[in-house]
Give the backbone structure.
Amino acid sequence: MKLIDLHVHSYHSDGVLAPAVLVAMAAERGLASLAIADHDAVDGIDEAVAEGVRLGVDVIPAVELSVELGRFSDLHILGYCIDHHDPAFRDKLAGFRSARDNRGKAILEKINRRLLHSRKAPLSYDEVLSMAGGAVGRPHIGRVLVDNGYARDMEDAFRRYLIPCNVPKRYMPAGEAIAEIRRIGGVSVLAHPPTITDDRRRLRQVVEQLAQLGLDGLEVFNNLCFKDDMLYLERLAEEFGLLMTGGSDFHGFEDDVELGRGRGGLAVAHSLAEKVKELAAQRKHSHA
């Protein structure tokens, strides 16, 4: 069976590897399709597509938007088969990237105050920037904390510094994000639904609301799911007529997450990527 990974991050958001490196890894693992879905960033797509052509991996242009819905914030909506060159969309992302950079600086300032209080040398923003190919994310700061010996590993860096010194993100309203993805020819999918709430009744309400706003799919097969979660998400997708997708949410710094395999048990069928592409093609045809 041909396998895929539709949720991977590069150093253009909070991953640590270049897009071309991720595509080469996908080719090595025999994946048929890959989507580098960076947070609020599309800068790595052209590089990934070119490398995909060279290595025979179908690279699907994608993005991951941080959204809010009622009292829920930091829901993530994936957009697939998007026109990533659309000027209005890129302008919108530039605003989010600027907010992301400011957030990175504010988090670093809080961490440096904590380090100085412990009589430790502060971190340099330039050192953090050198880890990022685009906007600064918390994992980039985490890597510098580890490299400077202030944390044992990324988990330790998050526990001791990044979570206590966190600064809220800027979010797009969910309806606006879904409409924007559709406007640029894309297919919208809710990423890792179990992160939203453990309460399945509440999760069903969230999915229903998003479906009413035009959501196209659910990331049924993901890192944060046990088998019974995936079965529940399959039922939800069926109930609301949503497509199913899956991906590892690989960033490149995790010890226990592999591209294409997640925590070892992930196997996402190529047919799911084909269904996403079919829906995008149908919409394009109907607008032509």
Notes: The mean pLDDT is 93. The chain has ten helices and ten strands. The longest helix spans residues 87-117. The first strand starts at residue 3 and ends at 8.
